[in-house]
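Hi L.,

You mentioned the student needs an example of a multi-chain input paired with its predicted structure. This one should do, with 828 residues in total across all chains.
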Amino acid sequence: MMLFQTPEFMFCLIILLAIYYFRPRGRMILLAVADLAFYALAGLGPAALFVGITMANYYLAQGLTGPRKRLLLWAGIILNVGNLVFFKYTLFLVGIMEKALQVPLLPQLPFAAKLILPVGISFYTFQFISYLVDVYQKKIPPSQNLMVFWLFGSFFPHVISGPIMRGGELIPQLERIEKQDIVMHFRLGLSYLALGLFKKVLIADNIAVYANNFFAVSDSLGTIETWIAAYLYTFQLYFDFSAYSEMAMGIAYLFGIKLNLNFNTPYLSANATEFWKRWHITLSTWIRDYLYIPLGGSRKGELRKYLNLFLAMSISGLWHGAAFTFIVWGMYHGLLLISHNIYRKLKARLGRVRFFETAAYRAITIFVFFHLTCIGWVFFRASSLDQALHMIYRMLIPYQLSFTAFNGKFILLAMGLYLLHMLENWLRSHAGPLGDIWQRSVPASLRALAYTAFILALILFSQGQTNNFIYFKF
Amino acid sequence: MKAFKYLIIYLLIIQLLLPGVVPLEFVYRYRIDYALVKDNSADIDVILDQIQRQIKKQDLQDYIIILGDSVAHSGPGPADQSVGARLQEYYRQQGRDRPVFNLAMPAMQVGDIYTMLLKLDEHGISTDNLIINVIYAGFAERNPGPSTVFWLQKDLARLDPASFDHIEAQLQASGSLPREEPAQKLNKLITQRLEVYRYKDFIKADLQKRMGTNRKAENGLGDPRPWYEKEGLKKLLDTPDYHNAFAVKPFDMSSRNPQIYFLNKIIEHQRHKETLVFMAAVNPELMPQVNQPGYQANLQAVRNYFAAHSVRYIDFHGSIDQSRFSDHVHLIGPGYSLVARRLGEDFSAGEKQL
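Structure written out for the whole complex:
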């Protein structure tokens, strides 16, 4: 596996970009080979599987305009979901059955313990399903070029952890790949790449050390320390995953391809509905379009809508990992969404519109919802439900409340990280004018000095090769 | 585009000037900083580069190199109480300014020591005056571990492929030859050529020291107290690994024993040079088998081996008071001072004989 933040990846990227830039006619084949090589570094077996699944989806989609299209759609969905379930959930399901039946099944199914989760399987499964459904619903025509379709599935910046792209968004760009103006987006690409590197190398990996230490001794923590553990992981996860997504966007821009934004400062959300419009956006829209709406969405009455929300979020939780902690995390967010829907209705009945529109009210709701999010992440990070419940109990019921200098340091760190999050939000909304000022008012030699300092900081403070992205395991 | 050109110029300046502006103390002070190097053995090359620069800059002719394991490294105490520091101090008291470069490192095996000699040649650092430490366990039968080359397998493969081939099976059997993925190979290819990456660990450690956030203190190699103040040490040493390492079974003193194979190579390399080998003492209170006839016979066999090859040799068994041990084989500060003084006296005596 080659991680974006490593020197070997940067080296390969520069070589690849140079060839891509100077040989526009060979771009498609170059990217196709690069994608295969990138994926194969994670293992030849998973790469062979991925090639097979991609081919199968390509040919299945060809039949989705014919008379047996419904059958083929279901065959495609079963193939993709079956592939995911087999590699990701077999061991989990065997464990559940063992407990339910009180029979040791694992010795009879030794392969289950040996299954290795192919990287990116959860992401490419969703991407292929959405493609098949879109072709079936005639939103897009089936791709007629196997090479383009291979690039759609395997485009290396996003193949491991998204953003999850739709066929209608990515395939047309790939079809024009030899004519894409890559210079136009080069600066934007570098900016996103730099933002991602900053978040991953300088923030997420350094917070991870502390967050891991706190979670490792969660049994012995008091209320304040447990909240600190939750805060630190909350920021670690955001900075890690948004870093990956932004690096993916940045790298894609360098090749003239636009990937969708996955994060929009989600911890500034005032409620669950807003949060899911700002957190892992490509997943939440996928869940909405291919799960929640087909389940009936809000078309079949209030109660059914809540049930659909709950189901969709529970499945989203399970998608993240084969463990009850993830399912409970999904259910928790389902409940938060339902609660917000009910609360919104209550608010409408109360009618105090002006109060609900004040900045103070918004600040309070953001503060409350941020803490509800932190509680949810405890399920996401904990190694077992017991650990998660114990930690949440500690967070909610005061225990060993002592304000020490040690605690204070970490609370200040958490506050600093939140301010950084707010700063990111401000920078995003002022990126255009700020970029112009930077380019026009600062001499090139000084800008280069700042870039040099940034590169040096990245090299000096990187934690080495071992720091994977959290979402790689999903 | 203009900024990009400046960026390239700045990065080139750093690449060209960084090694020259870094003082030796930045990467080496009395001994290798184990806390740093254990996570990245490529840091050894940076240290050797800087030592070589110092030698060249100061036109040093008369200096001593120490190679060995944690005993010569002088764990678990601090660097300024290590054998190298004390030996340099001994020479200063004798009115002689003789730098000592202590390149010993915990877990270094005899194959590492041989490879270090080849690396020193590569860096143009003289091994005319060399002190090596060996330990009893090094001669004991390997079952299949410990590995004969613990840190420097890749360097041995590069610098002496024949020797590497000779011991590859032992390295495989002891599980010390991890498979390197293509990405890791490319990573090394790049990071070992870019000076910022090469000096990264040292710059980072220095910054952390200045900011008071160094999580890996240089002296953090263990508990430096005397052994009798440490609870549970006897129990800790009562494991099959330690029993095997200090077994009284007769040593195989032929070149079938990897220890002898590499010692022969070292002796061959050091022909016509000043070389002193010392055997680390063992605490008889913690390792009572020291007094058994089989153990003593093994020590005699080692003595005979070095005598047969005309290599000056000191066996510290029985010459260190047990109060100066930190555990079964390591010493506390005064213990290392005593070793340093004896090494200094013997090394000087050897030179006078010539």
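You could point out the following to them. The mean pLDDT of chain A is 94. Residues 221 and 394 of chain A are 8 Å apart (CA to CA).

Best wishes,
N.
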